[in-house]
Amino acid sequence: MNVLLVLFDLVLLAGIVGVAWRCLASTDLFRAVVLFITFGLLLALAWVRLEAPDIALAEAAIGAGITGALLLVTLERLRSIMAERRSGRRHTPPPDPTGPHALLRALHDPPPERRTFLPALTFALVVGGLLVTALWHQPQSVGLEPVVDAHMDISGVDHPITAVLLNFRAYDTFLELAIVLIALLGAWSLGRHDLIPARPAPGPILPGTLRLLVPVAVVTGVYVLWAGSHAPGGAFQAGAILGAAGILLVLARPRQLPMAPGTPLRLGITAGVVLFLLVGTYGLVAGHGFLGYADAWAYPLIILIEVAATLSIALTLVALFVAGRPAGDDT
Amino acid sequence: MNGLAETVAHTLAPGLLYPTGGAILFALGLYGLIRRHHLVLRILALNIMGSGVFMVLLGVAARGEGAPDPVAQALTLTGIVVAVSATAFALALVVHLTRLTGHAVMLPGPPDDDAPVEDISREAHHADGGPAESSAGEDRSA
Amino acid sequence: MIANALTVILIFAGLVFFAAGTAGLLRFPDVYSRLHALTKADNVGLGLVILGLMFQAGGPADILKLLLIWVLVLAAGTTAAHMVAQRTWTHGEFESDR
Prior knowledge:
The complex is a heterotrimer.
Chain A: H1 3-25, H2 29-49, H3 53-86, H4 117-136, H5 145-150, H6 152-155, H7 160-168, H8 170-188, H9 205-227, H10 235-252, H11 262-286, H12 298-322
Helix pairs in contact in A: 1-2, 2-3, 3-10, 7-8, 8-11, 8-12, 9-10, 10-12, 11-12
Chain B: H1 2-12, H2 14-35, H3 39-61, H4 70-101, H5 120-128, H6 131-141
Chain C: H1 2-27, H2 31-54, H3 60-91
């Protein structure tokens, strides 16, 4: 038992729980969101400690990065809706940020009432206590690691997590892509998107940095996708990196979004699910079972599905950030 | 004495320490979910509960000798992507609700409770007189 | 052996800069001086940590990746600091910061 490592674990866990507590106890929503982003980054550290570099990549890019951007833009939307309502005007563009400080009024949630304190505390303590007891009395088991290891040679890839995601349990991944698509359809069903409540930052700094960062992000995304067949990485992390690059581009010029042509956008967003379904159905017809591959074809098919899934996830994340159907799209 | 040292070592191994931390996060998120009213804070609480579940899964996967369980890790990866999609949809719903009613706060108890939150929605609707909006606002209080 | 010693020394030196930057972030009174402390100290701190890690790298590809990380963090950090400062300049400080 390494004392320094145990000390690190304890400090990290105390930090994670402490940040989560401050986040949930905050009356200022902006502060809560910033603390939540910090929480995600600390979690990424914990995942590295638990020998899960794939999850750490995904947590840093998705859990902290993209969720953080979504939360911040939501706060800004809420603020601009409330400001519009207070001033009695409707359907006006977001107020001028150089105007009076009215917009900077923070979004608040008053502290909770006292009468919910005891029931909530009792309930949380009982549930937490039961969970801890169950976990401490859980029998030791080797898990599924030996089984996965024994079948790696027929999976078509060299990285166990990619093998599980795209081959052994491709069902989960297929349904997951479907859920991502359904979430976007749900968001689109709420109407067309409004203007993003942000103004382009004046000055050359942001466009200049983006000119440097976006190509690097694209190369990194493709690299992470390709690396997924033999090392930590894969479609989800790559999709998140490309999606983050897309969100940065949207933020760089929020007033003049490049008009996404409807049909290619829809094709790109559904590419992952559609391709997965086609390959899966072919497997069914060819006698490998639904979502099964012939051993010789496993690698190219996995790469094909991963490319389509990356594209879909990246486009969907950007579309969820913009929220609402593309403007000028009447279908 | 030796037995005590063994118990401490067993307790502090990552395979037990992190699942315990995950259970604490889950309970903390549950507490926040019950007590806070603003919907964005409730979404944060749900996400913290989800992260607690991920921590339990990954901690249990890292138990014992050898490489961690890749199935649990793949499941967590799937879970993170599902969580961000669900969060994005929930946030879109919150924005829509705010547009309709003027606030994003879920009040405890029946809507005609003695809760001291000003309802901006009704004033705004009376001022506007828009039939579609007022019916959407009334749904909440009905 | 020497490489390990250099790594430890450089990373510790980097951590001192991080600690100084964090102390500034927590103690300084307004956004500008906080940014000043944070960006200067953290960039040097990260540079030292990266330099220390380079002695542990497995080859030129790893060294280049580490260097790329440093350059990217510099670019992103500079831009973020600039935008925070600019927003504060046009809007005043956030309510919760006061």
